[in-house]
Amino acid sequence: MDTDDCTAEQRIRFINKDMFKKHWLYDYIIPIYNSPNLESTMKKIDMPVENKKDYITIFPINNTTSTNNDDINELCNKLERCDKKITNIGKYFKACLDISKENRVL
Predict the structure, then answer these.
(1) Number of separate domains in the chain
(2) Residue 78 sits in which domain range?
(3) pLDDT for residue 86 is more than 80
(4) 27 FRET partner, CA 20 to 30 A, in 49, 59, 67, 92?
(5) Is residue 26 included in any domain, yes or no?
C-alpha cells in the first residue's frame, strides 16, 4: 500500500496489522507498504521512475521479457536494505525470489 493515499490512522493500523485483527487469515497477513509511495521508494534505491508506465521495464509482467537474474537479485537486495520506516517491500520480493528458486523459475 502507498501510504500517501490514506489517513495517518489507517497507515498505522495497516502497518501494525490492527486493520486485519478480525480477519480469519490474520496470522498469515503481512502488510506491504511504501511511505509515502512506491515512486519514492524506487528513488531511494536509485531507480527513479518518471512515469508509471515505466514500471514494466523494472517489473516485467510476463516471461517473454528477458530479465537478468543478477538484476533481480540486486533489486531485491536494494529493497531489503531500505529503511523499514519507508518500506518493507523487500520482504515481498525476497519471498517471491525464494519461491521462484524453489520452483526453478529463475
Answers:
(1) 1
(2) 32-102
(3) yes
(4) 59
(5) no
Q: What is the pTM of this model?
A: 0.79
Provide, for the chain, the percentages of residues in helix, strand and coil under a 3-state DSSP scheme, each rounded to the nearest 5: 55, 5, 45
Q: Is residue 20 part of a domain?
A: no
Q: What is the CA radius of gyration of the chain?
A: 15
- Would residue 62 count as lying in a domain? yes
Check if the beta carbon of residue 58 is closer than 8 Å to that of residue 49: yes
Query: Which positions ≥6 away from 32 have C-beta within 8 Å?
Result: 1, 88, 89, 91, 92
User: Is residue 69 in a domain?
Assistant: yes
Give me the residue label for grid cell 527513479: 48
pLDDT of residue 62: 64
Q: What pLDDT, in 10s, does the model give residues 35-83?
A: 999 989 999 998 878 777 777 777 766 665 556 678 788 888 999 999 9
Nearest CA to 4 out of 45, 33, 30 is that of 33
